[in-house]
Request: fold
Amino acid sequence: MPRKIPVTVVTGFLGAGKTSLVRHLLEHAGGRRIALVVNEFGELGIDREILSGCGIPGCEEDAVVELANGCICCTVADDFLPTMRRLLGRTQPPDHIVIETSGLALPKPLVKAFTWPEIRTRATVDGVIAVIDAAAVAAGMFAADPAALDRLRRADPSLDHETPLEELFEEQILCADLVVLNKTDQVDAAGLALAEARVRAHLRPAVGLLRARHGALDPAVLLGLGAEAEEDLDSRPSHHDAGEPHEHDAFASLVVELAPVTAVERLTAAVRHLARSQPVYRVKGFARVADRPMRLVLQAVGDRVETYFDRPWRADEPPCGRLVVIGDADLDGTAVRAILGAAAAPVPPAAAS
Reply:
């Protein structure tokens, strides 16, 4: 019987560092032919662009498959299964498949899809890896007012005050075979201990917890877990096991077109201002910086902004900036565009002198 192709599912909340972990896997693939399936929530496939533009061998166009404008947990039959058929049906199938889910995806429905007969005989879920942002968890990102929430729960224990973010956090950890506590360089010892305690509260027995910076872990630790997760669904509890729908109505995403910015610092300042004035969870995309031939990549979680130049603009693409903003359903699109647009506005003469 032919060997089943192992599949690693990389899940985790928005901005936790999933793409960084995947890039590190590719950089240290050790000759493995790895195919990537990248899922995006929103209208623009930023993560696929970042991976395709990274220049890493094995990360060429035909090795990266994008499922855009839909959460993979909600579009398994329509999008994911046809994609798997194409990958498994290649003349030279990949040695390993890595699926990077959207930050809003529930991993369990995806794992369950591997029980479909046409997939089950040809692929297996080697492991589900949940990437967690240590700094965000240490800061209590999943509760707007923890003290008030605790008072309400103590007053009426029967009430369910979970927010969508709390539910996603729990679901992704509860389905994991390995949890990566990422961005540990952004917290002190006390913050790291707090983040670990909050994660361990949801860990299933025998699930490992690793610390990482920039997703830099040895592939030997991440690949080859042999979990066969599709055969172990009952041990992975979910809020949605009883058939409750998984709604994304609590979230909104929009694409902002950017004119060339005069300075990287102005753009990062605008993104920080946006995070402090609007209910924004994640900003990611590209920008054109005036007088620079390279494309600027921007990724932000809250007011923590990361930027770097990844490659020159190609002759066949318009050198224009685009940012995807993901936030609460109450996100004010007009205000978002105004704040980000200010980063591209001409510098007043007084400020320029």
Summary: The radius of gyration is 21 Å. Confidence is low (pLDDT under 50) at residues 41-45, 143-153, 156-163. The first strand starts at residue 5 and ends at 12. Residues 5-235 form a domain with the Rossmann fold fold (CATH 3.40.50.300).
